Amino acid sequence: MNRQSIPLILVSASPRRRRLLEQLGLSFQVFNGNVDESVDPDLSPQDHVCLVAERKTRSAEMVFPGSILLGADTIVAYNGMILNKPSGPEEAVEMLATLSGNCHEVYTAYYLLHPETRKHRLGWERTEVWFRKLGEDEIKDYVASGSPLDKAGAYGIQDDFGAVFVEKIHGCYYNVVGLPLSRMYVDLMNLWKEIRDVE
Fold first, then answer.
1. Is 3-198 in CATH node 3.40.50.10950?
2. Which residues contact 182 (CB under 8 A, 6 or more apart)?
3. Which of 31, 38, 70, 105 is most buried, most CB within 10 Å of its CB?
């Protein structure tokens, strides 16, 4: 039985996550569930992303009961403060100025679920990212491009220009883009096998 005889649904509006799954050569559909991403501010960054990733995945379980659903969430944390997507250009400038010359952490969680069997996998990863000192003009130019406005922490490591802010990273690069690919892929393959064995 071909593993992809069980359809895969990406529960995400993120074009970056779509590209990452395409990079793996996987066939999948995209479903954009409307999910409340607000959580208790006292939650740790890893608990935050795990909760939101599960919410996203479960938003599609009634629509695709026979599929494997994949939802994910990414946040940036600096000095205990969680930086989600900026509310607008002004907040994006503030976030980038805060991250300038400092080390921050990127957390991404994913939740895989097969609603019919209730089988699931939850995983998360943390990557440390160091920014060089950024100039005011390059921050303003980057924000004016519009690119940072749909990204946690107001930057994309994979962007043509956002990439030059990053001095070094420790951990999984793809985690910063939006999915810890290696860890998620292993969980997905194991989940496919487990469901196939049940059938």
1. no
2. 172, 174
3. 70
